[in-house]
Write a structure and sequence with these properties.
Elements (H helix, E strand, L loop, with lengths): L7 E9 L3 H8 L2 H4 L15 E5 L10 E8 L2 E13 L3 E10 L6 E10 L2 E10 L7 H27 L3
Antiparallel strand pairs: 1-7, 2-3, 3-4, 4-5, 5-6, 6-7
Length: 164
């Protein structure tokens, strides 16, 4: 699969109170990692999305994940495919199809590094703005905020999961 160029990037790093193997097992589960998308939130204007995975559960190279929902009466949907998976250190996936409002195609993932009995996670998103108006205009206004919220939410949820 050819990787499209993603001109924009945001990343969030945080320590986790777990060894890399345990951290990878948690982060490798799309339902846990993307749990913030299945909850109503201000960033989603009170909306939420459902997450469906293939029979591999998003835990294999080439595995597929689909998210769908509605925001302000508009249908949102995206299909992702796992493009990189190297347990217990890294995983990445990217959109192969998306209908979103403030962010276009993207590549999202995480990298873990050991830190004694603990680990450190860096969650990143490389993305493009939507191609068509009015979503492109909304992207210029809100994509950076959304990218930051997404990576920070994932990092915070993982840190909370492993809190002592």
């Amino acid at each position: 699969m050819t990787r499209p160029a993603f001109p924009l990037r945001h990343e969030t790093a945080t320590p986790l109170n777990a060894p890399v193997e345990a951290a990878f097992a948690y982060l490798d589960d799309f339902r846990k990692l993307s749990a913030h998308m299945e909850k109503s939130s201000g960033m989603m204007m009170g909306s939420k999305m459902t997450i469906d995975t293939d029979e591999k559960g998003g835990r294999a190279l080439g595995s597929k994940v689909r998210m769908a929902g509605k925001m302000m009466g508009m249908t949102l949907a995206l299909d992702e495919v796992v493009t990189e998976r190297e347990p217990p250190l890294r995983k990445a996936w990217q959109t192969v199809n998306s209908k979103l409002l403030v962010i276009g195609q993207y590549r999202l993932g995480f990298e873990l590094s050991p830190d004694g009995a603990r680990s450190r996670v860096r969650i990143f998103i490389d993305y493009a703005l939507p191609e068509r108006a009015p979503a492109r205009w909304l992207g210029r206004l809100f994509a950076r905020t959304y990218a930051r919220w997404c990576t920070e939410r994932m990092a915070k949820d993982a840190a909370s999961h492993f809190a002592a």
